[in-house]
Amino acid sequence: QFTREGNTNHLHEHKPILVGRPYSYGTAGFREHADQLPFILYRIGYLASLRARTTGKAIGVMITASHNPEQDNGVKIIDPDGEMLAEEWETYATELVNASDEEFPTAVRALETQLNDPPLGSTGSIVVCGRDTRASGQLLTQAARAGATLFRTQFEDRGLVTTPQLHYIVYVLNHASFGPAGEEGYYRHHALTFKELFDKLSKSLTNYTPKLHLDCANGIGAQKMRKLERKLPNGALNIHFRNETGVLNHECGADIVKISHKAPAGFEDVPVNERCAVFDGDADRLVYFYKKEDGQIELLDGDKIALLIAKFYKEHLSSLGLEDECTFACVQTAYANGNSTRYLEEELGITPICVPTGVKHLHHEAAKYDCAIYFEANGHGTVTYSDRFYELLERSDSEAAFRLRVMSRLINKIVGDAMADLLAVELILRHYDWSVQEWAAMYEDAPNKQIKITVFDRAAFITTKDEQKLIQPGSLQVLIDEAVKRRGEKARAFVRPSGTENIVRVYAEAASQADADLLAAEIARATD
Ligand code: 16G
Ligand code: ZN
């Protein structure tokens, strides 16, 4: 019983699939086995159209399950400024998706009324949809289209894009002065800003080399990075593409390299000491590594990227005398390596800020400063800055102000973007004329270990806001405290429920790798 001319024709094709637990709009939207998703896409397509109608703006629907296996998929909504969906709308999403078949039309009606029946087909309101390379993506796009057009909202399928590209497209659609809102516009913008800075940097280099191996995680990043690379100045980067067309995320990609501390499959013939970069399946995470003589890898994760960028910004702000005028911060999560936090404070003089896991928490905190760098250890992050920050830089015609302005425009300030971050890292390394070894030597990672544990109900685990301690079960926290104490001063450990899977994660750091492994194992046993 949709009133206001809703078209219910598709409703029967998208009956809910029950899985014995409620679905929830988690840190990365809904993520499930792809077979369960069509009805979710249908409903989220509708919700995105409602969001578009209430704001009169373009709204994004991104279909991806990032680093998860190929057979999974997921969906998240992108708000008008290219940011994550506003929190109260996450609640609407969860309610709509959990409504039974019979309840759905009533739930829709209630939501329409609550939002004062936003206008149908108003100009500006449009849903733009994008997807990663998963086979299920096309069908799910159709479901999203059926839901979005339920009330005749315009729907545009942008096809295969990286997650950050869709964020960018949504932002540009709503900020027309920024340039053309499409993939070509994205490449143009990034290639031109890259060139602007590249042209000013010295070409006589001793330590930096443009050669780099790139693990594309067999995902969307492969074809998109190739397109971007073609537009870069000759000789600026010499990328050896790897893992372009195999099984998505299979034994490769940023998540696996970060957690297993091993080179991805397909890197067997890469010589030691050469710089390697790694994307995840939807190209919103980036980590680096190089192989060492001893067969291990040296990993340069999100923390190392954050600190490289933080050093660059901090030094430029100091040389411009803007340290007092500009509020500047570095935002991390509990997973940030203890030594990165120490380096930030002691070497760079930046007070680190710790927020809960999930991009939206980092982004919200970062947005409070004139300029902030936020990164998760897993490789997701970027730099945000205010209009005031940019105005202050524009007042100066010095080289330093120029570099900071261009760097800020190059980095995708809306969301962490593996391609944009890669360009930024490469330019900063070039600026310092650093090899990957020199970058790695900024600080040595404290040995650490992560373990996943399947639990009956992850909701039984409640943490403090910074996620470093458990409030419940309190008895487990007592055990963790004792175990940490036994491993000496440098040890640190915590347990937190995942926001994306039905598991809890154990993280431990200690003076040696053996100690970190033992500490994590001990806590894992107590958690199980
Ligand atoms: C999602 C988050 C990521 C976070 C991860 C944690 C977004 C866009 N992505 O991938 O930031 O690190 O979840 O997963 O927010 P977990 O809760 O399973 O540890
Ligand atoms: Zn991702």
UniProtKB/TrEMBL annotation:
Substrate binds at E376, A377, N378, R496, P497, S498, G499, T500, R505. One of its GO terms (molecular function) is magnesium ion binding. GO terms for biological process: carbohydrate metabolic process; UDP-N-acetylglucosamine biosynthetic process. It comes from the Eukaryota. PROSITE patterns: PGM_PMM. It is an enzyme of class 5 (isomerase). Its EC number is 5.4.2.3. Gene3D superfamilies: Alpha-D-Glucose-1,6-Bisphosphate, subunit A, domain 3, Alpha-D-phosphohexomutase, C-terminal domain. InterPro entries: A-D-PHexomutase_a/b/a-I, A-D-PHexomutase_a/b/a-I/II/III, A-D-PHexomutase_C, A-D-PHexomutase_C_sf, A-D-PHexomutase_CS, AMG1_II, AMG1_III, PAGM. Mg(2+) binds at S66, D280, D282, D284. Pathway: Nucleotide-sugar biosynthesis; UDP-N-acetyl-alpha-D-glucosamine biosynthesis; N-acetyl-alpha-D-glucosamine 1-phosphate from alpha-D-glucosamine 6-phosphate (route I): step 2/2. Its cofactor is Mg(2+). Residues 473-525 form the Alpha-D-phosphohexomutase C-terminal domain. This is Phosphoacetylglucosamine mutase. It comes from Pristionchus entomophagus.
